[in-house]
Design a protein that fits this description.
This protein has about 350 residues and is mainly β. Helices cover about 5% and strands about 35% of the residues. The chain is built from 4 helices and 24 strands. The chain has a 24-stranded parallel beta sheet that branches. The radius of gyration is 20 Å and the shape is globular. The chain starts with a strand and ends in a 7-residue tail after the last helix.
């Protein structure tokens, strides 16, 4: 350990300093939330902090505001960070909690890393309890490696919020009135599970070698007829700002599911300029032959593309006519360096 590093330990007796909860460890850092953000974010001078989290289930609602923090777990199946807030809950002031006050873990800073752990919202299925975010990521240069992100509707939100909500009060929550940071997020070797459209937001996110599991919602009624088409979800709902050339990029990922064949779309546009691309990804049979849904935005400027998809759900000849099958030259532009604007996660 160098003089520029600090190591804290949670639930690991014998280490000093030692804390019983993650909240205690975070509070010991005495750092207030960033109120002014910019892109790219300035390099922080605070020393790097690694919080080692031992085996266990930690039922804590967490917000990380200090830059240069790493949460280091003992393994996806050993270190579980979980909470259970959902959008339909009625708050003390008699309004509903809403989507953006549900996050089990909210990252509100830059240069954050999480490794070898699970982040979960266990409130229930979305059609019953509403949106329930497991991980809310707001900030720049944030990394998630070997993490499981588990939820139902709206598992992963990649901030910032769009510029305007569709309905008054729709953005109520911690990011409603904050300056919007066009953050860059990197997900490597992660397992992400959800339904409806469970990866959503305006951030720039690069997913590499991840497993994306579209789960069959346990609160959906079966179709009245075997011939009825039932759609169980959408992997993504990007809201990329119009000025950004890249939104979500999935490289060497596999898409799996317990849903019936042809019942899940790759994406639909939360806002008009959504951008999502899959590069050399294995598509399960659950992926709909059309691949993409326009969400009735028939005059949208969204961009949806695939390159070298394979597996039973890969079907370039049947994809929606507004989507793109990338050429070799077009796919070559989607390097990690280009998408993340020169940032190279380590």
């Amino acid at each position: 350990m160098t003089n520029n590093e600090l190591h804290l330990y949670v639930n690991l007796p014998g280490h000093t300093p030692h804390y019983n909860t993650i909240t205690e460890a975070l509070e010991s850092l005495h750092y207030q939330a960033i109120t002014e953000k910019s892109f790219p974010a300035p390099a922080e001078k605070l020393p790097t902090v690694t919080i080692h989290i031992g085996e266990g289930i930690y039922r804590e609602k967490l917000t990380i505001t200090r830059p240069n923090v790493t949460l280091l777990g003992a393994g996806q199946d050993k270190t579980i960070l979980v909470y259970g807030h959902a959008a339909y809950e009625v708050m003390p002031e008699s309004d509903r909690r809403g989507t953006f006050r549900t996050a089990s873990v909210r990252i509100d800073t830059h240069d954050f890393t999480a490794k070898h752990l699970t982040i979960q919202n266990d409130a229930g299925f979305g059609h019953t309890v509403g949106q329930a975010i497991a991980l809310y990521v707001d900030g720049d240069r944030n990394i998630f490696e070997d993490c499981a992100l588990l939820g139902s509707q709206d598992t992963l939100f990649t901030a910032p919020l769009p510029l305007k909500e569709a309905q008054p009060g729709g953005f109520k929550g911690p990011g409603e009135h904050k300056p919007r940071t066009m953050g860059r997020h990197y997900y490597k070797d992660c397992f992400i599970r959800g339904d409806v459209d469970f990866i959503f937001g305006s951030g720039i996110a690069y997913f590499e070698n991840c497993t994306i599991f579209s789960q069959k919602p346990g609160d959906r009624k079966p179709p009245e007829s075997p011939d009825d088409e039932v759609i169980y979800g959408y992997v993504t709902a990007a809201s990329t700002p119009c000025e950004e050339p890249y939104g979500y990029v999935f490289k060497d990922c596999q898409l799996i599911s317990d849903c019936p064949p042809h019942s899940v779309y790759l994406g639909r546009p939360w806002r008009e300029w959504a951008k999502t691309v899959f590069l050399h990804c294995k598509m399960g049979a659950h992926i709909h032959p059309l691949g993409w849904n326009d969400w009735n935005k028939t005059h949208g400027h969204f961009y949806y593309g695939e390159y070298d998809s394979y597996g039973p759900g890969a079907s370039p000849s049947t994809r929606a006519d507004f989507s793109h099958q990338l050429t070799v030259e077009e796919a070559a532009k989607y390097t990690k360096e280009n998408v993340l604007k020169g940032w190279t996660p380590e």
